[in-house]
Amino acid sequence: MRGIAFWFYFTGVIYVIAGMAFGIHLSATHDYTLAPVHAHLNLIGWVTMGLFGLYYHAVPAAADGILAKIHFGVATVGLWLITPGIAFAI
Ligand code: HEM
C-alpha cells in the first residue's frame, strides 16, 4: 500500500487507537456521556477512512489525481471538526 491509500489507512489506524483508548476511558470511569464521540471517532476515523484506503489500494487509477488528495483533506478536516463538535453539542 502506498500514496493516498496508505495515508487513509495509516491515519485510520491512529484514529482507532485513539477511539479504543477513549472507549476504555468510558468504561473505566463509568461515564458514558461522550459515547457518541467514541462511536464517531471509530466509525468515521477508522471504518470510513480505512474503507477509503482499501478502495484507493484496489483502484490505483483513482488515487493518482488531485481529487484523491482533496478527498483526504476534506475527510480529515471533517473528522477533526465533527469529533469535538459532537462533544460540544452534548
Ligand atoms: C477497545 C475497544 C473499544 C472499547 C473499550 C469500547 C467501549 C465502548 C463503550 C464503553 C461504549 C458505551 C456503551 C454504553 O453506552 O452502554 C461504546 C459504545 C459504542 N462503541 Fe465502542 N469500544 C471499543 C471499540 C469500538 C469500535 C472499534 C467501534 C466501531 C468501529 C465502536 C463503536 C461503538 C458504537 C457505535 C457505540 C455506541 C455509541 C452510542 O451509544 O452512542 N467501538 N464503546
Written account of the structure:
It is a single chain. With 90 residues, the protein is mostly helical. It has one domain (3-89). 88% of the residues lie in helices and 0% in strands. It contains four helices and no strands. Helix 2 (35-58) packs antiparallel against helix 4 (66-89). It is elongated and about 45 Å long. The structure holds protoporphyrin IX containing FE. Protoporphyrin IX containing FE binds at residues 16, 20, 23-24, 26-27, 32, 35-36, 38-39, 42-43, 46-47.
Brief summary:
The chain has 90 residues and is mainly alpha-helical.
Task: Provide the descriptors you would attach to this structure in a database record.
binds protoporphyrin IX containing FE, elongated, mainly alpha
Rg (CA only): 14 Å
Q: How many beta-strand elements?
A: 0
User: Helical residue percent?
Assistant: over 70%
Low-confidence stretches: none
Distance between the termini: 38 Å
Strand content: under 5%
Q: List ligands, each type once.
A: protoporphyrin IX containing FE
Mean pLDDT: 97
Largest sheet: none
- The number of domains is 1
Element layout with pairings:
Layout: H1 3-29, H2 35-58, H3 60-63, H4 66-89
